[in-house]
Amino acid sequence: MSEWLFSREDAERSLPGKAIAMRFAETFGHGSMRLGLYAPRGSDTQTPHAQDELYVVVAGTGRFTKNGEERSFGPNDVIFVEAGADHRFLDFTPDFAAWVVFWGPSGGE
After folding, report:
1. What is the pLDDT of residues 13-68, one digit of tens each?
2. Full-model pTM
3. Dihedral angle at the C-alpha atoms of 99, 93, 89, 63, nearest 10 degrees?
4. How many CA atoms lie within 13 A of 18 on its CB side?
5. Which helix (H) or strand (E) is 69 found in, with range?
6. Among 55, 62, 51, which Cα is nearest to 85's?
7. Where are the domains of the chain?
8. Residue 101 contacts residue 53 (beta carbons within 8 Å)
9. pLDDT of residue 9
10. For residue 62, which of 52, 47, 73 has the smallest C-alpha distance?
11. CATH fold for domain 8-103
């Protein structure tokens, strides 16, 4: 993997085994920004994060909940989550994967 071009395939090779539910591989960081591939299996048990974040869905479908509101998602959708928001992916297909970008100060911008 180069230091400025990141493929999904390279990131997937860094993911923990499929037996691990919370599969996340950080691929790059610069300043306050971190980029990773998120591909949970079974259920998503994440808790609110200190930074703002963007998810870019690359595979799979399902539902996403943020602060009690649910919406369907699919490939190429982009989901914004402000710092501190309660959120998670629900009823997602086994092939689900999303790039996730965290950035900014603790508490969000």
Report:
1. 877 666 555 688 888 899 999 999 999 989 999 999 999 999 999 999 999 999 99
2. 0.86
3. 110
4. 4
5. strand 69-73
6. 51
7. 8-103
8. yes
9. 83
10. 73
11. Jelly Rolls (2.60.120)
